[in-house]
Design a protein that fits this description.
Radius of gyration: 20 Å
Number of helices: 11
Strand content: 15-25%
CATH architecture of the largest domain: 2-Layer Sandwich
Strand order of the largest sheet: 14-13-12-11-7-10-9-8-15
Largest sheet: 9 strands, mixed
């Protein structure tokens, strides 16, 4: 796992199967983002059986098979969609194409697991909502900055246990390293394909806010975007921030950017601060800068009992993925409700649409 490269960051955990081999079969299609490796790692660790892989680019399939040699190369997208054994399709398609592909998957009687962000436009979200209602299938989303980070999972447990009282506010910081611009595909720099920074990596931040605050609905108050340092790619938002107010009065501020310096030991200094009426939690997800405390998953808890630093590595595992498998088999919603997945997507689209341009782009 390359900790310096966010696009190909694929966490691995300990196997914790919830099903026996062959009881839950999934296939993968469209490998446009490296997150697909994290998705497949987590599903197979939870006991799912990987069957097919498809991408129109044979080089992507060849690379995938080096990591997952058990996968069968499919000759077409339809071979997966029509396969009777495949119960779920996991995909990291080009962002603007995830919604339409997900609707095709659900039309074929399968659940869909998409990389974030799941949409780039509200009409795509509306179509997916209608298809979920029509088919009864799931459109789940890989919001990895919470679901695949043990520090964030532990923080959620601490909130649920009342360690900081009632949550008032959540602040999130999601800097990323761009790396060599030429290493990114062309679609990454085109707004119509990637959707904008608040739609893209902002989706992580909004999903976390909804989860930690318990809000079911919220309103975008303000949003800003800019391109400060990448004139060769004028449609790239390299900075964005946003303020949100929840229906129950909680608040959220987050900042996302592509300015992680080369000297940092990981691809981004992702942090979340959760303020409650009786304390606060800070999650230092991937690195604890210049402290001598290695690795990520640092959780800092301060409340009436005192102050505590917890290394969450190895404490929680990644329960979402096993829960998702069981949800698909039992038609339950324990991993994440469909309403939550769609509300996070809706708010990030609204934030992007409302964003004020800061750097003079038209």
């Amino acid at each position: 796992m390359n900790v310096s490269d966010g696009m190909n960051y694929a966490p691995k955990g300990k196997p914790s199967p919830v099903v026996k081999p062959g009881e839950f079969v999934f296939s993968t299609a469209h490998l446009n983002h490296g997150h697909i490796y994290g998705m497949v790692n987590a599903l197979t660790e939870a006991g799912a059986t990987l069957k097919y892989v498809y991408d129109p680019d044979p080089k992507k399939v060849e690379q995938f098979l080096k990591t997952y040699p058990q996968a069968i190369p499919a000759q077409s997208e339809d071979q997966i969609l029509q396969d009777k054994e495949t119960q779920m399709v996991a995909s990291a398609h080009v962002t603007s194409m995830r919604g339409a592909f997900g609707c095709k998957v659900m039309d074929c009687g399968k659940d869909y697991f998409s990389d974030k962000a799941p949409f780039t436009a509200l009409d795509q979200l509306d179509a997916a909502k209608a298809k979920v209602a029509e088919t009864g299938k799931k459109y789940m989303v890989y919001y990895s900055e919470r679901l695949h980070v043990e520090g964030a999972i532990l923080a959620g447990y601490l909130v649920d246990q009342g360690e900081i009282g009632k949550v008032i506010s959540v602040s999130g910081f999601g800097p990323h390293r761009l790396g060599d611009p030429a290493s990114r595909p062309d679609w990454f720099y085109q707004r119509k394909y990637y959707g904008g920074i608040l739609c893209d990596i902002g989706s992580h931040q909004i999903e976390q806010y909804l989860h930690f605050s318990g809000e079911k609905d919220a309103q975008v108050v303000s949003a800003r975007i800019g391109n400060y340092g990448h004139p060769d790619h004028p449609e790239l938002d390299d900075f964005g921030d946003c303020t949100i107010t929840g229906a129950n009065g909680t608040t959220n501020y987050f900042r996302v950017d592509w300015f992680t310096p080369d000297g940092l030991g990981t691809w981004g200094d992702g942090r979340t601060i959760i303020l409650g009426t009786e304390g606060y939690i800070e999650i230092r997800k991937y690195i604890n800068v210049a402290t001598g405390k290695p690795g990520g998953n640092h959780v800092i808890l301060v409340n009436g009992k005192g102050e505590k630093h917890i290394d969450a590595t190895g404490m929680t595992g990644y329960p979402f993925f096993g829960q998702l498998i069981l949800d698909c088999l039992n038609r339950t919603e324990n991993a994440m409700t469909q309403a939550h997945a769609f509300k996070a997507a809706e708010l990030c689209l609204q934030a992007q649409a409302a964003a004020v341009e800061l750097t003079g782009r038209s």
